[in-house]
Design a protein that fits this description.
The structure holds 2 protein chains of 2 kinds. Chain A is mostly beta strands. Chain A is built from 1 helix and 11 strands. Chain B is elongated, with a radius of gyration of 17 Å. In chain B, the strands form 3 sheets. Chain B has a 3-stranded antiparallel β-sheet with strand order 6-3-7. In chain B, strands 1-2 form a two-stranded parallel sheet. The chains are: A mainly beta, B mainly beta.
Chain lengths: 209, 92
């Protein structure tokens, strides 16, 4: 019911009573692969399709997931008037993640920036050496917010790296956890300007005509 | 008298008289592709060892070793339940 006063008039877009909860599933794949939709019928690039050369990796047990961005802002300051606006440039979009599942090493090696592993009968080995700064990933993070109808919201980032220092917490009575993981997505100049960093996709046939 | 011994010759019976042997154990080979992004070394049922240099690498594997390789998975208790997860090899 409209409030007598304080309600805007005219065309208005209201928010939905939908609340998302918990972490999305997190998948990543070598950037050398192409997105599943490359592009889709609407011109958007998203989703992953694993191949033998470029498998999709699924992060198992994750905690404390957050998605943030970094922006450079500079005010348009006119000393005779004041601030008339702000110039903003998006620098990167970033997932912050803590994981509790460390194995197999073949998967962990990406998050910890290890060397290409060697797998043999009963063993896995990977080196802790120089960081390969040319390794990029696509990131696919879907959150199902209605299990019955399969409605979901997806964040797809085009060109990300695992950055910053990781910490493996080895506490008594707790599962080991790898914290400090950051999947930072940069501008991908191969994608259209409007989706250089990523795409958000919502699938909800009942709510969207 | 012809010598009896084991020879591993892939699908070529014409070589038997040339080599002057009676018993040739013929081995057929099947190309197998690695699905794991790692350098993988495995030993098959026949005792043969195969090395795959990264995901997508294809190696000719003795057919007797194929079932074992196709049944191999990376890791133990997998978290996500899909039957296709962590399968290490596939037929090329």
């Amino acid at each position: 019911m409209a409030i007598l006063t304080g309600t805007a008039v005219g065309n208005l877009v209201a928010a939905e009573e939908v609340y998302l909860e918990g972490s999305p599933y997190l998948f990543y794949q070598d950037y050398s692969a192409t997105p599943l939709y490359n592009p889709d019928s609407d011109g958007y690039y998203w989703d992953l399709s694993g191949t033998s050369v470029y498998p999709v990796y699924a992060l198992g047990c994750v905690q404390d997931v957050s998605l943030t961005e970094n922006i450079t802002m500079n005010d348009i300051r006119c000393d005779t008037i004041g601030v008339k606006g702000t110039i903003q440039k998006r620098n990167y979009v970033e997932f912050n993640i803590t994981i509790l599942t460390l194995l197999p090493v073949t998967q962990l090696r990406h998050a910890l920036k290890l060397s290409t592993p060697t797998t043999g009968t009963g063993k896995e080995l990977a080196g802790i050496g120089a960081v390969n700064n040319n390794q990029f990933y696509m990131v696919y993070a879907p959150t199902v917010y209605d299990q019955n109808t399969g409605d979901l919201l997806i964040f797809h980032l085009h060109k990300a790296q695992f950055v910053d220092a990781w910490t493996i917490n080895m506490n008594y009575g707790e599962p080991w956890k790898v914290s400090g993981l950051k999947l930072r997505a940069y501008a991908d100049e191969t994608k259209p300007a409007g989706q250089r960093f990523g795409v958000i996709v919502r699938h909800d046939p009942s709510a969207l005509p | 008298m012809a010598e009896s011994r084991r020879l591993y010759i892939p699908n070529d019976e014409t070589l038997a008289p040339v080599l002057g042997v009676e018993n040739i154990e013929q081995i057929s080979y099947t190309p197998i592709r690695c699905r794991i992004d790692a350098n993988v070394t495995v030993t098959g049922e026949t005792g043969n060892t195969y090395t795959f240099n990264g995901g997508g690498a294809v190696v000719e594997v003795a057919s007797a070793d194929v079932p074992k390789l196709l049944g191999m998975r990376l890791g133990g208790a997998l978290c996500c339940g899909d039957a296709t997860f962590n399968v290490m090899f596939e037929k090329a």
